[in-house]
Design goal:
InterPro entries: AT_hook_DNA-bd_motif, HMGA, HMGI/Y_DNA-bd_CS. Belongs to the HMGA family. It is found in: Nucleus. The protein is an all-alpha fold. The chain has 1 helix and no strands.
Amino acid sequence: KRRRGRPKKQQQEPTGEPSPKRPRGRPKGSKNKSPSKAAQKKAEATGEKRPRGRPRKW
C-alpha cells in the first residue's frame, strides 16, 4: 500500500498535429526599437539620468 498523494494523470495519445508552443517572456525585438518622437522629447526634459534598479546604500 504505497502511492500516497496526487494520482498520476493518464497519458493521452496525441491526435493529429501537435499545436506549436508559444514563446515565453519578453519578445526579443522589443529592445532595439527606435523611440517615438514623444518619448525622445520627454527624455530630454528629464535632465539628470538616474541609474535603474535598487538605490545605492550610503
